[in-house]
């Protein structure tokens, strides 16, 4: 929500078209961004040219901030449910809505080594965490309100039926905390020194609250892990595509769990815009063609899957690696980030929670994916990361590595 607070960001940091502008105080970013978009669209109303609007809401992301009237109503729910209750409720909702398979296995909340039971949390901390999580929910409601305003504007100006709308979220909930193994002492000290930690201030501009590790694990429902990690809870996002009425799209109304990469979206947009993505240059400048795959053929029903069986997606983050091809995902997580450093195989369509490793049953499938990743890593120059390096606090001692192994039961 990012309510701008006086004194936190220097005045000189705010520029528009190279000129310093007055920094708005006391306004939430959702209001600011949507108002600016309406201004842009109003300026363009007389034009017959197509427009592209990229609306990058910063909700919900740390620091979590929202209007208090949206926060208060959610607090009792999170106090009652706690961490495991939220995860179970979301898992069941995802099944009911068809977001994950009806027979998907529930990834038990307690299976993650970094989280606590709600019963272990002191009452005062429960109140703080519940209000933080309620603020997170309020940010989503605020975003929904502003998206509704944008849709209303398009409808009232007669552009809704002629507009392609693509919605997706950031990857995974933010699990950084002020306590526990994935906290950073310097960041915690800075937050505590510059922001209010009072319960009544959670959600306001003078507070820098976040939902923390425990609720980050909970809100992914049927998925595991969260942002900074490469489990599905940290890399899978919702995607909604709403076509204009004039567009041939046979999959309208469908819910699917086919794999699509974010890199496929620019390729798709350019395809519909009639832009040649393999052209050698643009206005005398060399350009790189998008590495994604256009989804147009799949959206229009010309093929059964967004990507062919041969097309893969490989990714590396903090020395952790995965590769997806078809329904299968091979994943390797380093010991300093609570992995065993070995490759594992999952079917992320039938088992989005990555609860049942398949490498023993399908060693050839795993070997094929690992070979793809190794070739990709070599081609891209990916540098190996030490097993004992942590993105939060740097290199871990033997004692700290031993503590991680103990947490994992090794």
How would you describe this structure to a colleague?
The chain is of the alpha+beta class and 410 residues long. It folds into two domains: 11-237, Alkaline Phosphatase, subunit A, CATH 3.40.720; 309-410, Arylsulfatase, C-terminal domain (2-Layer Sandwich). The protein is 34% helix and 10% strand. It is built from eleven helices and twelve strands. The chain has helices at 29-43, 68-71, 75-96, 123-156, 185-194, 212-219, 232-235, 264-272, 296-299, 363-380, 398-407, and strands at 15-16, 19-20, 165-168, 239-242, 281-282, 285-286, 312-317, 320-325, 328-332, 343-347, 389-390, 394-395. Strands 7-8-9-10 form a four-stranded antiparallel β-sheet, covered by helices on one side. Strands 1-2 form a two-stranded antiparallel ribbon. Helix 1 packs parallel to helix 4. The longest helix has 34 residues, at 123-156. The protein is globular, with a radius of gyration of 23 Å. The model is unreliable at 1-13 (pLDDT under 50).
Structure described in brief:
The chain is an alpha+beta fold.
Topology summary:
Blueprint: E1 15-16, E2 19-20, H1 29-43, H2 68-71, H3 75-96, H4 123-156, E3 165-168, H5 185-194, H6 212-219, H7 232-235, E4 239-242, H8 264-272, E5 281-282, E6 285-286, H9 296-299, E7 312-317, E8 320-325, E9 328-332, E10 343-347, H10 363-380, E11 389-390, E12 394-395, H11 398-407
Antiparallel strand pairs: 1-2, 3-4, 5-6, 7-8, 8-9, 9-10, 11-12
